[in-house]
Design goal:
It contains 18 helices and 17 strands. It is of the alpha/beta class.
């Protein structure tokens, strides 16, 4: 068992963290913070990370779940961003093929629509060039007949044809977890449910934080030579705490996605389409479900818990029924949903969809470094950029020099099967091994593609835990997945497991209902939670189950 990333060993870890002075303390356990921690630690900087909620609980588990090259940014002439982010897709894929899958995307164009045959062809060709797209994945232009053959549900009126190009689908939360696990493997000390309440200063410089463990209420002082604010939608909250919020500020916009069962919404092919009001929306088949989104509206309510409103739901339903008119989808068909916030850099006079997604770094007089904005796809480059700044500062202060970033060719946790080309054979082998353990082919394949090479640790728990699993009336693979998540992925609450380690609350909500009582019972016993704590955690899970389906 990995002591350093076990939910059961958080207290020991926090006690150890208060005894050390780190080179770098990262506040924020989303994809950006995880990427910075991995980059810094693997260059030789002692690094700590704290996260107020669970890892990826904010924006990093609530995206469109695409590691994409930002085709729509060509409309805004963000050429440099498309080039950089496009090339990063291939890097993420090679380093973690188990959580990233190439997905052919169909962009239909209609008479009078935003895109025509010429602009689509040119746009996708420029995109292929800028993003360094592999030869076999370069865009193809389709006739009307070919477009309908690939997706018969599409609206036929005024359809002229389609562009066909590759995006990469990902599990954003699991990508974040795999980056975190790799960082911990390299020596990062990371703890979730630990909130930075205030900064500690010496001679006007931020040298640490007073942090509270939100599970136990205990406070700890964690000290570091350099502190990074990578808190996504909360970056301005921390800048205010540091009294350094001036100049540019965040503007939060909300994006909502709806999930439907694949039998009710039998989409064959991922579609990227423009809506009657000129926005762009994705519809993507995944694991027997279809999800569609997203909206883009200004947001000023609770940052920690954005949800779908009736207005959000109806907007997405209208967009879906416009492009797939035979489906006649209604609110009753929505099986699950999620809402996420985009922390964008405020720009005067621009609508949410027009605001740049570029990342930006703010330097505070106290030395606090804040990174804001940015895209899931660009997490590794952001980590490299921030770590370069810190390396320069540390070199000035200590005279020690640090190597350049090592993350470009570094397999993430679970990705040690020898690159994307070797992954299909690995899946075949490990699925067969799962079947030998008594699992169905579907379950064995799901576990293999979820955990990558770490599936071996889940399989070994299946062998060890049949008796324990049957005591809780759980299938052995559910019990083994839960124990792996607690012992090696720092699961602390039931929602961590059902939302961010498995994605089940979004893509298999019935599975959550089926096993939640047993999971709650196991976690109560393992963590010695009080009745009051369990009541809160149960209510939290029930609320998230309700809010995923109902506006």
């Amino acid at each position: 068992m990995s002591i350093s990333f076990s939910g059961l060993r958080r207290n020991e870890l926090l006690h150890a963290m208060k005894e050390e002075v780190f080179d770098v303390l990262v506040i924020g356990g989303g994809i950006t913070g995880a990427g910075i921690a991995l980059d810094a630690q693997t260059r030789g900087m002692s690094t700590a990370l704290i996260e107020m909620q669970d890892y990826a609980a904010g924006t990093s588990s609530r995206s469109t779940k695409l590691v994409h090259g930002g085709l729509r940014y060509l409309k805004q002439f963000e050429v440099k961003m498309v080039a950089e982010v496009g090339k990063e897709r291939a890097v993420v894929y090679e380093n973690a093929a188990h959580v990233t899958t190439p997905e052919w995307m169909l962009l239909p164009f209609y008479k009078g629509g935003t895109f025509g045959a010429f602009s689509t062809s040119i746009g996708l060709r420029v995109y292929d060039f800028l993003a360094g797209v592999k030869r076999g994945e370069r865009r193809k232009m389709l006739t009307r007949e070919e477009t309908l053959r690939r997706e018969p549900l599409l609206k036929q009126d005024n359809l002229k044809g389609g562009g066909y190009y590759v995006e990469y689908r990902t599990d954003d939360a699991r990508l974040t977890i795999e980056v975190m696990k790799k960082a911990v493997e390299a020596g990062v000390k990371a703890v979730n449910y630990t909130k930075a309440n205030q900064f500690v200063y010496e001679n006007g410089k931020a040298v640490g934080v007073e942090a509270v463990d939100t599970i136990t209420g205990q406070t700890y002082t964690i000290r570091a030579r350099h502190i990074v604010n990578a808190t996504g939608p909360w970056v301005d909250t921390l800048r205010e705490l540091d009294k350094s919020k001036n100049g540019k500020a965040l503007r939060l916009t909300k994006g909502v996605h709806l999930v439907f069962d694949g039998e009710r919404f039998p989409l064959r092919q991922a579609i990227y389409f423009d809506t009657p009001d000129g926005r762009m929306v994705f519809a993507i088949p995944r694991d027997g479900k279809t999800y569609i989104g997203t909206t883009d509206t200004d947001y000023t309510a609770d940052i920690a818990y954005p949800t779908m409103t009736a207005e959000d739901r109806d907007y997405v339903l209208r967009a879906a029924n416009d492009i797939f008119p035979s489906l006649k989808l209604s609110a009753d068909d929505v099986e699950s949903s999620w809402a996420g916030l985009r922390p964008l850099i405020y720009q005067e006079g621009k609508s949410p969809s027009e605001i740049s997604r570029k990342d930006e770094i703010f330097h505070s007089p106290s030395g606090l470094l804040t990174i804001a904005g940015g895209k899931l796809t660009g997490y590794r480059k952001m980590g490299e950029t921030v770590t370069n700044l810190i390396a320069g500062k540390l070199q000035q202060e200590t005279g020690r020099s640090y190597p350049s970033s090592r993350t470009k060719t570094m397999a993430l946790s679970g990705g040690d099967f020898g690159g994307s080309a070797a992954f299909p054979e690995f899946v075949t082998q490990m699925t067969a091994e799962g079947v030998r353990l008594g699992l169905s082919t579907a379950v064995a394949q799901q576990l293999t593609t979820r955990y990558g090479t770490n599936v071996k640790a889940v399989y070994s728990r299946i062998l060890q835990s049949e008796q324990a699993a049957s005591a809780y009336e759980l299938p052995s693979y559910v019990y083994a997945s839960l124990m792996y998540a607690i012992e090696e992925e720092m699961v602390v609450k039931p929602v961590d497991f059902f939302v961010r380690r498995t994605g089940a609350l979004f893509f298999d909500i019935d599975w959550v209902h089926r096993w939640k009582e047993a999971v709650l019972r196991i976690m109560k016993e393992l963590f010695h939670y009080s009745e009051d704590q369990m009541a809160v955690m149960t209510a939290d899970l029930d609320k998230q189950l309700h809010d995923a389906k109902h506006a």
